[in-house]
Amino acid sequence: MKIEKLKLPDSAIDFLKSQGFEKLYPPQADCIKSGLLDGKSILVSAPTASGKTLIAMLAMLNYLSKNNGKIIYLSPLRALAAEKFAEFKKLEKISIGKKIKTSISTGDFEHIEKNLENSNVLILTNEKMDSIIRHGAEWVDEIGLVISDEVHLIGDESRGPTLEMILTHLKLLDLKPQIVGLSATITNSDEIAKWLDCKLVKNDWRPVPLSEGVYDGGKVMMSDGEIFEVKPSLRGIPIDLGVQCVQQGGQSLVFAETRVRSKSLATKAADIVSEMLEKKELTSLEKTSKQILAENEHTEIVKTLAILVKKGVAFHHAGLNQKCREIVEKEFRKGTIKLLSSTPTLAAGVNLPARRVVISNINRYNAKVGANRPISILEYKQL
Predict the structure, then answer these.
(1) DSSP strand E in 30-88: where?
(2) Do 162 and 23 contact (CB within 8 A), yes or no?
(3) Range 3-202: architecture per CATH
(4) Global confidence as pTM
(5) Which range is least confidently modeled, 11-15, 22-26, 171-175, 345-349?
């Protein structure tokens, strides 16, 4: 389905096309057929990078063109909320019969900012929305569209109860808001859809086919039967796997379990990756390194990042400020950063074009039991 065929104002269509959207992906088209632009509540269960952000944007544009209420976009993470705010802030350029005002709040849970009352698109963390509800903000009754990102986390031991309370409250508002849930591919999506009173749109389509493999004893065995060797080095197998992909002309994303290890892995990869770069790539990376130093306070973490970026590698975790994270993500998308080491927070809603993803450790520290435990199937699928 082409973008211009959508039942949206011409100004909205022009905006979408200016952002590079020409044709809908299959999951997006399925949502339109299921009544997304008719105000129907929908739960989208689809893989990472299948276009769920555009689904949210279409719902927003449709709602704003027909209604005067508020839109709430719920995010489980501050970093993800900040990324979506930057993306949805662009909606303010559209002439849609009313002024679009986008705001974000992820901080002090005991303080409700005045700007939220005067905005019609609000990007909030789940915890912030919970605080707003508990403090009885009057404008909550004006909410007409709720978009819940990573809604499958409702089953998470730590984050799930808060999200469940929020959605229960919002479902019962007098306006009966349209609810759009954005979910990973999970087995119980039908149960969540039934609980939310949403129509389930389930589609396993991906823009790039996914193949999976396991490393053991110097070899990687792929799910399709292919086997290839990896030459071990002192850098360690996760980096060896990542570097091998860079040598073949691709980009690698290596997931680490902690911030410290994320930086350590990137450091180990730096010298060998820099040897593979062309002169024009090194020149471009030098400019990016200077940009990082020019736009940020010269803390140890910023200086380390700037040094590594010059060599075509970087790390990414919640300890980096938003500016640094955005620069790293932008350069990885451009293809100048060849290997990126990150903590799992990057997997929540941030889509990057890696040819190879390496999970360096399948265990995570579980504070409840005081020991490492294997990551869940859901987390693995999200990575």
Answers:
(1) 42-45, 70-75
(2) no
(3) 3-Layer(aba) Sandwich (3.40)
(4) 0.82
(5) 345-349
